[in-house]
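Collaborator request, handled under Task 6.
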Amino acid sequence: MRNFFALVLVAGCALLCGCWGSTPAPQKTDAPAAVEKAVPMNSTDELRRKADLTEAASLVGYDGKAIKEDLHKVIDAQQEAAKRLEDLNDIR
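Structure tokens returned to the collaborator:
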């Protein structure tokens, strides 16, 4: 009786372990989502998107909204400085 119980237990464990190993089939993406990924973001847009994520800092006790606003001010200043530098290079 013990051998039968041990055999059923081992077979059950093997069956469960085998079922967990399967991976789901990859899902097809929508056409509009694929188009959005094809368009590369410039560095300013990417920085703004990352700055928007800092608002989550409010979850751990910081003022996320203020941090986001400060980062947007820094990004604006950097973009303006880059534009001025580009204008200076065009003077030549």
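The cover message to the collaborator said: "Helices lie at 2-20, 31-38, 43-53, 64-91. The two ends are 95 Å apart (CA to CA). Please let us know whether this matches your experimental observations."
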